[in-house]
Design a protein that fits this description.
Butyryl-Coa Dehydrogenase, subunit A, domain 1; Butyryl-CoA Dehydrogenase, subunit A, domain 3; 11 helices
Length: about 400
């Protein structure tokens, strides 16, 4: 096992606590939010108040000082309950850049307020329309003028920007033509969106899932120089340092979704009687469920390994990427199997399958497409030639 006995006991206590919390937010709550494309404000408030979103913040700043493995279990259980942890997950991995690379003053100024919920750091401003997954090709530019940076540019697929006070923003500080390596000249900032609301135009994007997704236009946005995180021009390196945590946490949500589908599919297959026998007696129903269950269990094991390695400060790029890939792929198989098992009822909103089906599909392409994970494993693990 990757987890020692004492830590396992604590993880089970966390699971119990999240399950108890989620009972007050049944699937009918999430269906209503989905129908109205509304943010689950009440759920996030309780999650924050009880300290679950601040588990990665050190105790000295008001958090629990726990690890990525504990954070993973929180997100997993939310999704297994039928909820959507995506409404609050970004605070866990965006906060990491501030924690690892921020100055003592920045940490003291922001982390206690993030931990208490006085400030929300839920927005992660990286992706751009013309760059996509090619992050080093972004155009948003931050020009240093005196003691501040003036930022102009555009971001897309930025979730929760309308529900966040702060944004972790990646922008160029050196033009692309002036850098030796394309990964140079990028910097990260902590942007106070409330302070600059007149210069930030946020446009919601209508998507197939309720993910509070937006497009953002930045026009002469002013950021004080003290809000530069780390060293100017090293932002890409800082962003990469948190991507493994992000992939482990996203894998956890997929695992939670997968367990949700297995729970729902098994219960329905035992209850639904056709031709005078439960449909779960048919191997055409049994096999997809059993196969998906095994794959999800395997994904959970690699997730646990990746999380423990991350918490121990070990290089876990291989494990974090595999966890994200295996969890999202196996859960998508489970989603399709359970949709088939439910037949027409799977399309009925009252059964909740169609909502979770839509949500589960996201993580095959976000926050990184699985194709890029395969190329990473091929190149960096197997030693095959770079494909692009």
């Amino acid at each position: 096992m990757f987890v020692d006995e004492d830590r396992q006991v604590n993880l089970e206590a966390i699971r119990s606590g999240i399950r108890a919390l989620c009972k007050d937010f049944p699937e009918s709550y999430w269906r209503e939010k989905d129908d109205n494309m509304a943010y689950p404000e009440e759920f996030i408030e309780v999650l924050t108040k009880e300290g679950w979103l601040s588990v990665l913040i050190p105790e000295e700043y008001g958090g629990a000082g726990l690890g990525v493995l504990e954070a993973s279990v929180i997100l997993e259980e939310i999704n297994r309950s039928g909820g959507n942890a995506g409404a609050g997950h970004a605070q866990m991995y965006t906060m990491g850049a501030l924690l690892r690379h921020g100055s003592p003053d920045q940490k003291q100024k922001y982390l206690p307020k993030i931990a208490s919920g006085e400030l929300r750091l839920q927005a992660f401003g990286v992706t751009e329309p013309n760059a996509g997954s090619d992050t080093t090709n972004l155009d948003t530019f931050a020009e240093k003028k005196g003691n501040k940076y003036i930022v102009n540019g555009q971001k897309i697929w930025i979730s929760r920007s309308q529900q966040s006070d702060l944004m972790l923003l990646l922008a160029r500080t050196t033009p692309k033509k002036e850098v030796k390596k394309k990964t140079d000249g990028l910097s990260i900032f902590l942007l106070d969106m409330n302070d600059q609301k007149d210069n930030i135009n946020i446009q919601p994007i209508d998507t197939m899932i309720n993910h509070a997704t937006t497009e953002i236009f930045l026009e002469n946005v002013e950021i004080p120089e003290e809000n530069l995180i780390g060293e100017e021009g090293k932002g890409f390196k800082y962003i990469l340092s948190g991507m493994n945590a992000e992939r482990i946490l996203i894998a956890s949500e997929s695992i939670g979704d997968g367990k949700y589908f297995i729970d729902k599919g098994t219960a329905y297959a035992n209850e639904r009687v056709i031709f005078k026998r439960p449909i779960g007696q048919n191997q055409g129903v049994q096999f997809p469920l059993a196969e998906s269950y095994m794959k999800i269990e395997a994904a959970e094991l690699i997730r646990d390994k990746a999380a423990v390695m991350f918490d121990n400060g070990e290089k876990d790029g291989k494990e974090a990427n595999m966890a994200k890939y295996l969890s999202s792929e196996s859960t998508w198989e489970a989603a399709n199997a359970v949709m088939d098992i439910h037949g027409g009822y799977g399309l009925a909103k009252e059964y909740h399958i169609e909502r979770k089906f839509r949500e589960a599909r996201l993580y095959k392409v976000a926050p990184i497409t699985n194709n890029l994970i395969v190329t990473y494993i091929a190149q960096h693990v197997l030693g095959l030639p770079r494909s692009f």
